[in-house]
Design a protein that fits this description.
alpha/beta, 5-stranded parallel β-sheet, 3-stranded parallel β-sheet, 12 strands
């Protein structure tokens, strides 16, 4: 990635590095306005198997198409490999895309991914010609296994879904970036403020995916716009080469030529 605008996923280029979820908004109109204000070109959508072919599902699909963004279906709420794989296959049929954000949840309170099930499901779906975007932790070993399973993109969490806590493990996220410099990495989940998104981009991450922080804001449209701006600022800062932090103060004013008092 050589510029603030170059963002390529599975051979497709995008201007925006923000990916936006589509649930929990006060109304479909606000969702559409927020998505446009954010500049996001990729929207995640959940497949509700019990209503995928009902009228409300078709109305929602039309809304997403009118926004003009790329759809990234997800397997939200799946707790087993079989459930996640079946949901992904149904989503490909409904939405007409082989892209899938893969979630295999292992723990109900934190919604932490199940690394064993995640790798297994990723291997099955990759063999079935899916382009898998796995929602994972910042664990280096799990990341390596997912890449071996066929994943070309990784989506480590910042914090538990919907928590708004930001980047819980900056060291782990920085290590992941350093170990996989050529793999697109997108921070997914747990961000609550635009500053959290900027911090992720300053670490060298390629993008950010979020939902609750915008959908549950007092003004979702204004918050979506703020996140879009923060991501651009964070990316620009990373490319500019931030100064290294230090433990001691360093004068910014030269001491040479100062007055000598006796």
């Amino acid at each position: 990635m050589t510029s603030n605008s170059d963002f390529t996923l599975h051979g497709q280029s995008f201007r925006s590095r923000l990916m936006l979820g589509t649930s929990q908004y006060p109304s479909p109109a606000i969702l559409a306005e927020a998505a446009r204000a954010s500049g996001a070109e990729i929207l995640t959508v959940s497949l509700r198997r019990e209503s995928a072919r009902l009228k409300e599902g078709q109305d929602f699909w039309r809304l997403i198409r009118d926004i003009g963004a790329r759809v990234l279906p997800n397997t939200a709420g799946c707790y087993s490999v079989k459930e996640a794989v079946t949901t992904a296959q149904m989503a490909r049929e409904v939405f007409g895309t082989s892209w899938v954000k893969l979630e295999v949840i292992g723990e109900a309170d934190t919604l932490q991914p199940d690394p064993f099930g995640l790798v297994e499901a990723a291997r099955i779906l990759s063999a079935d010609d899916f382009q898998v975007f796995p929602y994972t932790t910042e664990d280096l070993v799990v990341a390596e296994r997912l890449i071996e399973a066929g994943c070309k993109v990784l989506m480590p969490w910042g914090a538990p879904i919907g928590s708004g806590k930001g980047l819980n493990n900056v060291f782990g996220l920085r290590s992941l970036r350093a170990h996989f410099p050529e793999v697109p990495l997108i921070v997914d989940a747990g961000l609550g403020l635009p500053s959290h998104a900027a911090a992720a981009m300053e670490l060298g991450y390629d993008g950010v995916l979020l939902n609750t922080a915008v959908a549950k804001a007092g003004d979702p449209v204004a918050m979506a716009r703020a996140f879009g701006q923060a991501i651009e600022a964070g990316r620009a800062a990373f490319l500019a080469g931030p100064m290294e932090s230090r433990d001691m103060a360093a004068p910014s004013t030269p001491v040479v030529g100062r007055a000598v008092l006796s």
